[in-house]
């Protein structure tokens, strides 16, 4: 990947510093140190500590994240002028990188170590007056405060150049809290390509071979060329601290891409990576971890302060049992607290049963050592006090008119029982439609019944039509929703079943010997209909009772039978002057009195029928007169 050349200011600063040459020849030859510069020779074989100077740069965050994905923790030695503008002399022209604190925070979040590389990157031995030595470190110390661990404060001198004067001056200042200077084992030689390389020289045209010739004729190297030289040196040395610079690059190479190139190769070759503060010689100079009581170095605690326990050389804070758990066993010197789950009803507890609760879940309250469910007010009651951690809900009965309510009284109803509706908080009885009306709109939870008139033919109804009747007026019955008039029984029949609410009248014919007029309830017996008159036929008519039909008493005479000498039974007979018998004019049939009228059939106590003889005689007389008249007419003719 080709990258653009970095800004001219940065390049000029690096060209002025001749950093690679100085870093290759100072720090382990010319200094009389009051404090040894640290290298990585105490690391195991094939173990490397990656370090990056002069940042943060514009791609530092990218590099941090990529290393994190590889499981590698590195150290980033920061120049304070990359974070804040400085009042110190700044011949290298270093300016703040955009969003520097966000970059530093990402370094911390990704597990890297933030360290001090002075503020302006001036040579401490040759460029910084003694009165500016402490400020060179102090400004950067302020810039990285909160990002650099207080017990892991490391310092690297620019160019690796150091002196006894600098060591003594800083030892008398507040900056003596730093451990260092941290030197390197690989990556600082710009004059021995291809066996060695310095990344800054690769990107700034200052890389030479062992003959002093510029590499590629211009001193520049690509990402791969520079990376291969680093690999050659690492393989030759075998272990130690690797020096690189995260801000720099040119259009055909940069440090971020070189790291992405060499790390996978080194991993395949079996190299391991540690953070520089884990180099044994450096770790031994660092204070114990803050929670160590005694130690042999970082992450090498031998005992812990109170409230911590030792595990794998590190002191860990004793766990506090979270809500929902209780302490089954306490934290000890080499074992953490053991927590176990409370009963599901408890938020906190002293044991694992439902009788060991100390506080309760939100929907429960504590009674004794038990968490009981908060009561929900039932229908017909309302809440006067909410459930609290130590007391149950308090409910009171609604007014009797309410099904549910929001408070006391008849005006706090929220719903009503059946047969009532809600109006302005009150439950009112639903209207019952009067006779002759029906509920055209039923009573609802919030509206009363609406009644409308039935059809005129209905006594009660369930709709407006004539076939929506529910009951009928007297003398009517309900048939398929309509009101029909009750039938009356015809003469000769009687009522078997009276007209009911849903059935018409049922009639039955009178039996022989009984009769009934129209609309009779029962058939009455005719009794003996014989009237004693030989000239009538007597019978029981089912519609009229006893009837007497006149017969022709002289039929036999007309046929030649002798005339009686006198009318029977005192019948009145009469002949005309010629002595010829008259024609019998039938009398109208006698009408039997209705049964039960109090009248008799005309029979006397001895069984005779008084008066019938006179009627017979009168009839004979009429017959004779008729005959005489006939003869007269015949004679006249």
Describe it for me?
The protein folds into 5 domains: 8-187 and 238-278, TIM Barrel (Alpha-Beta Barrel), CATH 3.20.20.370; 381-428, no CATH class; 437-482, no CATH class; 493-524, no CATH class; 526-636, no CATH class. Helix 3 packs parallel to helix 4 (100-109) and helix 8 (223-237) packs across helix 9 (255-268). By secondary structure, the protein is an alpha+beta fold. Strands 1, 2, 3, 4 and 7 form a 5-stranded parallel β-sheet that branches. A two-stranded antiparallel ribbon has the order 5-6. Residues 1-34, 555-618 and 620-637 have low confidence and may be disordered. It contains 12 helices and 35 strands. It is rod-shaped, with a radius of gyration of 67 Å. It is 20% helix and 22% strand.
Low-pLDDT segments? 1-34, 555-618, 620-637
Superfamily (CATH H level) name of the largest domain:
Glycoside hydrolase/deacetylase
Q: Would you report the number of β strands?
A: 35
Number of helices: 12
Give the CATH level 1 class of the largest domain.
Alpha Beta
CATH topology of the largest domain: TIM Barrel
Shape: rod-shaped
Mean pLDDT figure: 84
Give the percentage of residues in beta strands: 15-25%
């Amino acid at each position: 990947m080709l990258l653009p050349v970095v800004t001219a200011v940065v390049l000029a600063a690096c060209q002025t510093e001749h950093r690679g040459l100085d870093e290759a020849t100072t720090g382990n030859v010319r200094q009389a140190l009051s404090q040894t510069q640290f290298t990585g020779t105490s690391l195991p074989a094939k173990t490397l500590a990656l370090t990056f100077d002069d940042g943060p740069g514009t791609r530092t965050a990218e590099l941090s994240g990529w290393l994190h994905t590889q499981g590698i923790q590195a150290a980033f030695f920061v120049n304070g002028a990359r974070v804040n503008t400085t009042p110190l002399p700044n011949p290298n022209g270093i300016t703040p990188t955009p969003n520097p604190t966000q970059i530093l925070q990402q370094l911390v979040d990704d597990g890297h170590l933030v360290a001090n590389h002075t503020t302006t990157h001036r040579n401490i031995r040759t460029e910084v007056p003694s009165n500016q030595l402490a400020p060179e470190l102090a400004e950067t110390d302020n810039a990285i405060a909160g990002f650099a661990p207080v017990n892991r404060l490391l310092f690297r001198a620019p160019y690796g150049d150091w002196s006894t004067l600098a060591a003594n001056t800083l030892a008398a200042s507040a900056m003596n809290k730093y451990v260092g200077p941290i030197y390197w084992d690989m990556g600082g030689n710009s004059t021995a390509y291809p066996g060695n390389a310095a990344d800054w020289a690769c990107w700034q045209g200052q890389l030479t071979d062992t003959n002093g010739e510029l590499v590629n004729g211009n001193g520049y190297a690509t990402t791969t060329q520079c990376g291969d030289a680093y690999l050659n040196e690492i393989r030759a040395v075998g272990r130690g601290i690797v020096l690189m610079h995260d801000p720099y690059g040119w259009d055909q190479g940069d440090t971020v891409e070189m790291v992405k190139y060499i790390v996978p190769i080194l991993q395949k070759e079996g190299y391991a990576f540690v953070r520089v503060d884990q180099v044994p010689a450096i770790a031994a100079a660092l204070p114990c971890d803050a929670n160590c009581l005694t130690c042999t170095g970082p992450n090498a605690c031998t005992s812990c302060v109170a409230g911590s326990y030792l595990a794998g050389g590190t002191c860990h804070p004793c766990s506090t049992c979270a809500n929902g758990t209780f302490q089954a066993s306490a934290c000890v010197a080499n074992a953490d607290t053991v927590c176990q789950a409370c009963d599901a009803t408890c938020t906190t507890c002293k044991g694992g049963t439902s009788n060991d609760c100390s506080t309760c879940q939100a929907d429960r309250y504590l009674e004794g050592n038990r968490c009981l469910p908060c009561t929900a007010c039932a229908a017909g009651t309302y809440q006067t006090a909410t459930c609290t951690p130590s007391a149950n809900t308090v409910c009171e009965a609604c007014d009797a008119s309410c099904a549910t309510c929001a408070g006391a009284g008849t005006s706090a109803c929220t719903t009503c029982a059946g047969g009532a509706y809600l109006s302005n908080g009150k439950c009112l009885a639903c209207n019952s439609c009067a006779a002759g009306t029906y509920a055209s709109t039923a009573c609802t939870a919030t509206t009363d019944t609406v009644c409308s008139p039935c059809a005129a033919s209905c006594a009660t109804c369930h709709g407006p039509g004539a076939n929506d009747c529910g009951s009928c007026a007297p003398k009517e019955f309900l048939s398929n929703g309509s009101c029909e008039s009750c039938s009356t029984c015809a003469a000769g029949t009687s009522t078997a079943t009276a007209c009911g609410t849903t059935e018409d009248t049922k009639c039955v014919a009178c039996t022989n010997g009984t009769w009934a007029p129209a609309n009779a309830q029962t058939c009455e017996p005719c009794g003996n209909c014989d009237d004693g008159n030989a000239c009538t036929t007597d019978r029981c008519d089912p519609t009229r009772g006893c009837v007497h039909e006149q017969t022709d008493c002289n039929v036999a005479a007309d046929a030649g039978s002798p005339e009686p000498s006198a009318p029977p039974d005192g019948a009145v007979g009469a002949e005309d002057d010629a002595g010829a018998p008259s024609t019998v004019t039938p009398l109208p049939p006698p009408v039997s009195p209705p049964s039960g009228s109090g009248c008799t059939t005309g029979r006397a106590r001895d069984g005779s029928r008084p008066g019938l003889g006179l009627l017979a005689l009168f009839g004979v007389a009429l017959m004779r007169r008729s005959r005489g008249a006939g003869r007269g007419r015949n004679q006249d003719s």
